[in-house]
Design brief:
Elements lengths: L19 E5 L8 E6 L2 E11 L14 E4 L8 E4 L12 E12 L4 E7 L8 E6 L3 E8 L4 E9 L18 E3 L5 E6 L3 E6 L14 E4 L10 E6 L7 E7 L15 E9 L4 E11 L5 E4 L7 E4 L3 E6 L2 E7 L2 H6 L8 E2 L15 E6 L2 E5 L5 E9 L2 E9 L24 E6 L12 E7 L4 E8 L7 H4 E9 L5 E9 L2 E8 L6 E6 L17 E7 L4 E4 L2 E4 L12 E6 L3 E5 L5 E2 L11 E7 L4 E6 L2 E5 L5 E6 L1
Parallel strand pairs: 22-23
Antiparallel strand pairs: 1-2, 2-3, 3-6, 4-5, 7-8, 8-9, 9-10, 11-12, 12-13, 13-14, 15-16, 16-17, 17-18, 19-20, 20-21, 21-22, 24-25, 25-26, 26-27, 28-29, 29-30, 30-31, 32-33, 33-34, 35-38, 36-37, 38-39, 39-40, 41-42, 42-43, 43-44
Length: 626
Amino acid sequence: MRDPTYTYCREVLAPSTVDCAVSLSMTRADASNLAVARGNVLELYEVRLVMAGGGSDDSSAAGDEYRYKAVGGEDFELPVYQDDSRRRLGGGAKQPQLHLAHRWRLQGHIKDMHAVGGGAQRADRLLVSFGEAKMSLVAFDGGTQRLVTESIHVYEHAGLARKSFNDHETCALRGDPEGRCVAMRIYDDQLAVLPLGATGGGGGGAAASFVVDLRRAGVDVRNVRDVAFLHGYLEPTLAVLHEQRPTWPGLVADARDTSSVTVLSLDMARRGVSVLSTAGRLPSDARRLVVVAEPVGGVLAVGAGAIAHVANGAVSCIAVLNRVAARGIGAAQRDVVDRSSEALGLVLDAGRAAFAAVGAGTLAMWSQHGHVYALRLEGDGRLVRRIVVRRVRGSDPQRIAPPPVASTWDDVAVPPSCVAPVRLAAEDAAPGATLLFVGGAAGRSLLLGVDAGDGDGDSDEQLLRFAVHDEILGTGPVVGVDVGARGDALELVTCGGNEWRGCLRVQQRHVQPHVVASFDLPGAPARGVWTVRCLAEYNIGGVMQAAESAGLADAADTFVVVSRAGGTTVLAGGDELQELGASGFYTAGPTVAVGAALGSTRVVQVHATGLRVVDAHARATQAVVF
């Protein structure tokens, strides 16, 4: 559907700030994908492992030894690998990188996303939520390379749309750890629950959704601020952070600990909820719930100046982050107050901070300004007695000017919009390491490797160690813009960033190439052009060996293939393009595709009736007729 405002304005720059991200296996069951939402644009990345020296961990890597072997009585002989273990470039360790696979523009601003498991033999699906109160379950079709909508769930009708002060917090998706259902917050204190089948979504389709009104379901939960599903329960169980009697800073002397965490059990058959436990007297500014995985369990209730751990219906520990918060804790909770992190003087915006588990009882936290902290939960089993919060070495959060000295620790200091754990295939995952994607609200988004230390002592290096593997750049948020000109081309100069991470970005509408030389191609218009590089082979001691691949990236293209309606023209690359007379390429008709194969020692040309395999000397080594 065409945008009705297109008559009045036109989008010049596509959305680039990352709003949310989720890791899943969407293109196939064994794939490692990352779905990234930028406004109304959905991007799907593939996480690939490459060698530290820059080469790809690919079976087509050049520089290997080959030996000739007859294949199935064919007239031509093809090289096969002599030693499969040598198909590597460089001897360094493999590192993950992001490769953009697909990009789709959706009809609506994406609010949140959640991965729906497809089981061991099926690819995952993606649940996407949109404002005002909609969600859609989509899957990837490998045949058409498109998104396929499996179901749409809309809750924008008069029976549910009762406006409230927290409507800006709706459309947040929360998934059960066992994959049994997904819940989305909608108007007021209502939850839309989408069951995913008895097998936890493994190969089964989503059932009809239902709505639970927490005010009318016999639980009397009001003014909901956040919800989160808990680990280790036989039925889907979620914790609800709410405030029964709202207060404000002017009444803090009379009502200061007004927040509560209520644990509810979802009955999927009866489509209702029941109360399991309630922990009250939490700080009134608690706005966020963070789930703590086993063996500790429970949730963290995060406020502006305190972080409280709640488990089994009781508050086990409240870590204060500044002196003002320490004085604001009520008398009923002072026995569980932990003041070891009071000297940080940290004031959190819980709605903009991001958390990620990086070990047993250890979490990484990005504050709203991008400063990184390590949280370590200490105690006995599920009973947490101390929450240690330490700032990872980098910039001083209390100092804005002058800018801090750049260091590797400052590279991970990104104002977050989201933090998503990235999962790799079982054979690629490194033991003890956690891979995180940090979506940046100020332009940069990072793919990080995180190692949690042993936790002995308070040293920053013993808490968290980071490694930046890849990054995604963005143009937003834009705080200033101007138009300039370079020759005949217009440029858009934007100013963006945050605090000392501010920068200038120059945007050009098209690629501005520097033309070195031009050649005329007489005849019919070209339908396709391919450039390909091919390594020559040499007979050394009776064994055919390819040339060294170190200079392959800097070498000139070996062939330029131009496809037309009535035939194909092949040009020899080098300092000057020259048309080949007699060659092994198919020239009687148009070409469909051209690419390198077998360690860049062969060129494969696909045409309408078959394919040709050609070596570096333009000699055909194999011809296949369809």
